[in-house]
Amino acid sequence: MNAINPAELRALIRPDRVHRSLYTDPAIFTLEMKNLFGRAWVYVGHDSLVPKPGDYLASRIGSEPVLLSRHTDGKVYVIYNRCSHRGAAVCNEERGNVKLFRCPYHGWTFAANGDLDAVSMRRGYGPDFDLNDPALNMGRVPRMEVYRGFVFASLSAEGPSLAEFLGHARESLDEIVDRAPDGELDLSGGVHKYVFRGNWKLQLENVVDMYHVPFSHESTISRSGRQFGRRPGEESASAISDKGAAADRWEQRVAWGAAQYGHSYAGHQPVAEGLPDDPVFKEYVAALEARHGKARTEEILVPRRHNTAFFPNMTLQALNYHVRVIIPLAVDRTEIHVYPVQFKGAPAAMNAGFVRHMNVTHSAASFIQTDDLECFRRCQEGIATQGSDWVWFARGTDTDREDEHGDFINKGTVETQQRAQHAAWLHFMSQPA
């Protein structure tokens, strides 16, 4: 493979479009795994998935298999899923609990923090073989941090702190975690997994794309112009249309994109402003007020953001609460894991409703996600043709402005968020080795 130099990469990104090779060129995909996923802070998992010592979750940072595990010291670690002896992947199951990690090839064992525990048949090694040599450990990633239960890791020993990298996007995490009466989320309610035949960026772009909704999801809209109920107790949800009063309301939604690191979000749906009036929700509000008081609870319940994309591999939705993890497999093949969010301290019936409605909206066989997956497949197929070299993201280029943080901000069905993602893509991809 010929090296792609920074000048060639910069030529692929223009203010209102990107070159189709970003979605189709295997050489660019390989460089993304090294320069982008190898340098950025990448979401690995949530600490509620490893609640007890010995618990682990198999995950990936780009193409690197890693394990999120909880050690006997109570801390979580991110370690490479690799035996230090011959390099075999130690864990084959996605989740589990172990006293020790044991390599299936030659039986070497490791503690949950990745440190070498024992070498099988020790008598075969000479007296100078040092079992305390750090090179014999499974190895921890250079950097990892936990923010309000969300575990991020970086394969690079250098770069911005997690706080600097997340920037203003941290408020999306704060907003959803603050809604849990006990101040913590629980993502252990199961996971949907599916693979689509398309580039990983298609999913990241889509989650903050408000332009596609009245067209891609037209089948979910009733004759009255409203979508089906998206939350427990709702008979119908937002009025969705490309014209009239519904379109006007959608055009008032905030669109935001981080100027340097590519995180982005879309403002809340109007339907989120209507709070349920039922015994379960009242019980939930009482639990919040017991922790925060009435005034702070009212602030917490005010909706601000609908979808947030954490560049490069995680998304968060605050209407049908769920976390979506994007796992690049190949230039035209992507795996998605969808975890329903539950609030610790909330009524059990409320959390059960979150899980049930996430199944209806964003599982592989749901009303909404199936539409998007079909569009991803068609995009990948169409982009591969010779019809045009460019994929366009021009909506709102004339109305983008900077907010108080120096990030991009706009309103409505613009493509501000996607332009921010592509700017971050170029930032990471064009850095010198």
Summary of the model, kept short:
This protein is of the alpha+beta class. The protein is built from 13 helices and 26 strands.
Structural write-up:
It is a single chain. This protein is α+β, with helices and mostly antiparallel strands and 433 residues long. It contains 13 helices and 26 strands. It has a 9-stranded antiparallel β-sheet, sandwiched between helices. A hairpin with a 2-residue loop joins strand 11 and strand 12. Helix 9 crosses helix 10. The longest helix is centred in the last third of the chain and has 15 residues. It starts with 5 loop residues before the first helix and ends with a helix.
Any idea of the CATH topology of the largest domain?
Naphthalene 1,2-dioxygenase Alpha Subunit, Chain A, domain 1
Give me the side-by-side strand order of the main sheet.
Answer: 14-22-21-20-19-18-17-26-25
Distance between the termini: 16 Å
**Count of discrete structural domains:** 2
Strand content: 25-35%
**From the structure provided, what is the oligomeric state, counting identical versus distinct chains?**
single chain
The low-confidence parts are: none
Q: What is the 3D form?
A: globular
Count of β-strands? 26
Structural class computed from helices and strand pairing: alpha+beta
User: Helical percent range?
Assistant: 25-40%
- Number of discrete helical segments: 13
Q: Tell me which CATH architecture of the largest domain applies here.
A: Alpha-Beta Complex
Question: What profile does the largest beta sheet have?
Answer: 9 strands, antiparallel
CATH class of the largest domain, anyone?
Alpha Beta
Q: What's the alpha carbon Rg, rounded to whole Å?
A: 23 Å
Mean pLDDT comes to 90
Please, what is the CATH homologous superfamily of the largest domain?
A: Naphthalene 1,2-dioxygenase Alpha Subunit, Chain A, domain 1
